[in-house]
Amino acid sequence: WLKARFGSSRHSALCNCALPWHVRPPTLDQAAMVLIPKKERKQILEHLFKEGVMCVKKDPRACRHNELEDIPNLHVMMVLRSLCSRAYVTEKFNWQWYYYF
After folding, report:
1. N or C: which terminus of the chain carries fewer CB neighbours within 10 A?
2. CA distance 85 to 14
């Protein structure tokens, strides 16, 4: 159905950029909202304030964060991304790791 709808070009049939927005799979930036319990958010913030820096691997599917073993990596990523968008922390990205300080 892709070929009939979007033309006969092999590139347009295989590339997500040729698909309309409602057919494309979501990226990490367009991911659904993640609800984070207050208890976990508090643990993340306490760890950040105590250590002064946090490292987060760019792996939203990881079961657990490397420093906070009882919290999923996705929750840590989203809390720190939120703090970064409010300019409370600075983000550096290097070799598939985010550094927040």
Report:
1. N
2. 33
